Amino acid sequence: xxxxxxxxxxxxxxxxxxxxxxxxxxxxxxxxxxxxxxxxxxxxxxxxxxxxxxxxxxxxxxxxxxxxxxxxxxxxxxxxxxxxxxxxxxxxxxxxxxxxxxxxxxxxxxxxxxxxxxxxxxxxxxxxxxxxxxxxxxxxxxxxxxxxxxxxxxxxxxxxxxxxxxxxxxxxxxxxxxxxxxxxxxxxxxxxxxxxxxxxxxxxxxxxxxxxxxxxxxxxxxxxxxxxxxxxxxxxxxxxxxxxxxxxxxxxxxxxxxxxxxxxxxxxxxxxxxxxxxxxxxxxxxxxxxxxxxxxxxxxxxxxxxxxxxxx
Length: 312
Prior knowledge:
Elements: H1 19-23, E1 31-33, E2 56-71, E3 80-95, E4 98-112, E5 120-121, E6 126-131, H2 137-159, E7 166-170, E8 182-186, H3 196-204, E9 214-217, E10 221-228, E11 240-246, H4 251-265, H5 283-296, H6 299-310
Parallel strand pairs: 2-7, 4-6, 7-8
Antiparallel strand pairs: 1-9, 2-3, 3-4, 5-6, 8-11, 9-10, 10-11
């Protein structure tokens, strides 16, 4: 009889693992060094050693486009497109006695490629001007994401106790590799970076185990490893997350970091009855995202305020 398994993620969301990641192995141009912790032929699931850190800081941010805009600048012969956007970032401090919200900060920007982008004061908020590299939607979106990342970075530095706190950022580590004891956390997978023999080790992981650490280079270099969070599904990559750390760490340093993170994340795994993206959407991340979106305010109210401010 043909068997099948159910992906634990709610079908309303994109799958945790894109189909192409399994069916198009080898299509990635990433440069890999698989022998950081174990020789490629010796890869096997790793049971982490040591203990979880006493404190884990979790940083996350959210963004929202409130309106599409046109900037009528004196230096531009034609109006240039842009976006009015709201974004927020927060820090949660997780310890043996639970999790506490450290801080949330909200900012708002008018983003365009025009040097004449104005500051816009509305009834409910002030939008500060910000530059984008170009007027494409991709360029505007990248400029917004850079601002979100910068705000996360500022909050992380503000609340970090160097030498004692491990920092987990939701998403790739790009732009934050200079921070010590910092790990990027990726919960969706669009590409299977590993060759077939090592990728099979990911599927063989039990809850609480991780793969050996490897080096990965695309447009930037970082250490990486996969881990499996507590999950009952038998779907191939159910409960799998990828972690990233600085390429400047020694093999001993990154192995200790990988063990500590793998141990720290197990009790923080999301649960299906609370989160449709469980277990990868960690409880602190899911809770923080809801708070951040609430702090952004009502989108319809903000849109009306922007329209009122734009009237001559």
